[in-house]
Write a structure and sequence with these properties.
Strand order of the largest sheet: 3-2-1-4-5
Number of domains: 2
Oligomer: single chain
CATH superfamily of the largest domain: Ribonuclease H-like superfamily/Ribonuclease H
Number of strands: 5
Shape: globular
Largest sheet: 5 strands, mixed
Mean pLDDT: 86
CATH architecture of the largest domain: 2-Layer Sandwich
Structural class: alpha/beta
């Protein structure tokens, strides 16, 4: 049995989108007493909060978390809970999440906006832990299917995803825990009742309690992003084409692009800041290369040519199953690469 710390914390966030200027919509926190897990008894404390992100969610993000803008604008601001929540995040080395770099960046941004910046540290990532031990699809849904566990909620619940990250962590350490999260915790504890919407959705008004708070300063380096983008733009453009073939760009697919860029950053000698990967993916999403041009550059680059099959497989199965439109996109990519070969 591994020598666990006495307590571990698992988190998940749902957001308004995938860009660095997007905000946290909900936060799930599961703190587990590791001293009793060997017996299969899970002693956990759960917290599930919802926030007004002060901006409208991207339609795809709204479909994932299930909260419309009218509901969200009646909720608390993150800063109203930041002082109390900060103690949960004081030791990032004991915090785990699935695809942790995504959650960590958004959490750090929210605390910085609230004037309560977190100490530097690294979250543990159950996705990376799985990939270090298994070959296959590493999205949370895929691993849960391998374990034989189903979600309870129709939408992505931050609390349920944090709980499932804990289940995955324990399973990877030989502990087969199948206890479900408490049903009452699946609804955010601070969810406020919303009055009926009469007529069209009114324009948002900034809340008075934000007066005097400075907006978060951008921490991304344009030069670093440029070097990362230049190092992987042809390959990333192909992956984006496949990921968006079914007209959705999911967080699990975003994670594959971020993984490619992390590897590229190391290769080109760039040191990304907290938001650089988010902004690099966003830039490429908005400025992809023409596919025929990307194919020619990939074929002329031995490193890209030798790894494209691996990356295509990862992005195709990032969300557990290959959509028929993704398969059509892969066929088009293969055709373009064959033409580039000449």
């Amino acid at each position: 049995m591994p020598d666990f710390p006495n307590r571990l914390t698992f988190i998940d966030v749902e957001t308004t989108g995938l860009h660095s200027n997007d905000r946290v919509v909900s936060l799930g926190v599961v703190q587990v007493d590791m001293r009793g897990v060997s017996s299969g008894a899970l002693q956990c404390a759960c917290e599930h909060l919802i926030f007004d992100p002060e901006k409208k969610s991207h339609p795809q993000a709204e479909r994932v978390h299930g909260y419309d803008d009218w509901t969200l604008r009646h909720q608390d601001l993150f800063e109203e809970h930041a002082e109390r929540l900060r103690t949960t995040f004081d030791n990032p080395h004991l915090i785990w999440a699935h695809n942790a770099p995504f959650d960590q960046r958004f959490i750090y941004n929210e605390f910085s906006r609230a004037g309560r910046p977190l100490p530097e540290g690294t979250f543990g990532c159950t996705m990376q832990l799985y990939r270090s031990r298994h070959y296959g699809r590493a999205s949370l849904n895929s691993i849960l299917g391998e374990i034989g566990i189903n979600r309870q909620s129709a939408h992505h619940s931050a609390l349920e995803d944090a709980w499932m990250a804990m289940i995955v962590y324990l399973w990877l350490h030989g502990i087969n825990a199948r206890q479900s999260p408490p049903l009452d915790a699946l609804t955010p504890s601070n969810l406020k009742e919303v009055p009926p919407l009469v007529g069209e959705l009114p324009r948002r008004n900034k809340k008075a309690k934000r007066a005097g708070l400075k907006p978060i300063e951008p921490v991304s380096s344009g030069e670093v992003i440029s070097r990362i983008v230049a190092g992987c733009r042809p390959l990333a453009s192909m992956l984006l084409y496949i990921a968006k073939a079914d007209e959705e760009f999911r967080e699990s697919e975003w994670a594959i692009l971020a993984e490619l860029m992390t590897e590229t950053a190391s290769f080109v000698g760039a040191t990304p800041g907290p938001n650089d990967m988010i902004d690099a993916v966003a830039y490429l999403e908005e400025n992809p290369m023409p596919l025929d041009e990307a194919a020619k550059m990939i074929w002329g680059d031995e490193r890209a040519r030798s790894t494209i099959a691996q990356w295509v497989r990862k992005v195709t199965y990032a969300d557990s199953i290959a959509h028929p439109k993704e398969n059509e996109a892969i066929s088009e990519v293969a055709r373009l690469l064959q033409e580039a070969r000449g």
